[in-house]
Every structure is written in C-alpha cells, then in structure tokens.
Design a protein that fits this description.
Layout (H helix, E strand, L loop, with lengths): L14 E6 L7 E7 L6 E9 L4 E9 L3 E7 L6 E9 L7 E9 L9 E2 L5
Antiparallel strand pairs: 1-2, 2-3, 3-4, 5-6, 6-7, 7-8
Amino acid sequence: MEDDAPVIYGLEFQARALTPQTAETDAIRFLVGTQSLKYDNQIHIIDFDDENNIISKNVLLHQVGEIWHISASPADRGVLATCYNNMSLGSPRETERKSSPWRITTSCCGICRKAPARP
C-alpha cells in the first residue's frame, strides 16, 4: 500500500469555523470561516481531489464580521449560514452576535450575498 503525502492548507487569518459541504456529492468540499477583528473576514471553499492529492480553493468575502460558526445546507450546495460578531462603529465600540443565511455567488467579486427569506 502506497502512503500519500499529507496535504496542508494555510489561511491568511485565524479560523474557528469549519464544516463539510455534504450537499456537494461530486466533490470532497469543506467551508472554513476566518475570525479577524481588523480585516474583512473570508469564507474559504476548499475542494480536495483524493485521487491526485490536490487542494483547490475559492475565497469569498464575509465583510459583516468575524465568523464564529459556519454551517452548510445539507440540501443546497449554494446556501450556508454563519454566526458572527459585528462590531459597531460608534463610541463605545460594542460587538453584537448575529446570524445570517447566505447564497454563494462567485460571479461578482466572490462575495457572499444574503439569501432571500423564504415565505
């Protein structure tokens, strides 16, 4: 049996949120959310090709705050939800914990867009 070399993926910022994307049945895919108070946060979409031992990525901006939890929809690979801290711009600066569903759109700048509310 041949041992494959380990695969390592690095992030620009610290991360606390990781989830598999189980709605994607054709690929091994994970979502990782970064946690930074100073910079725009990111959602990394990481695909792993187990036959060739290769990682590919797509990075989306999550500008509303640091991501504390991320969850992928089990039914729709284009939908995810994040729990995040949003820092106020006023004085004194306060943080507020929020959550939002998102629709992944990679056609325009790779920015996550809030998913429309369903009736």
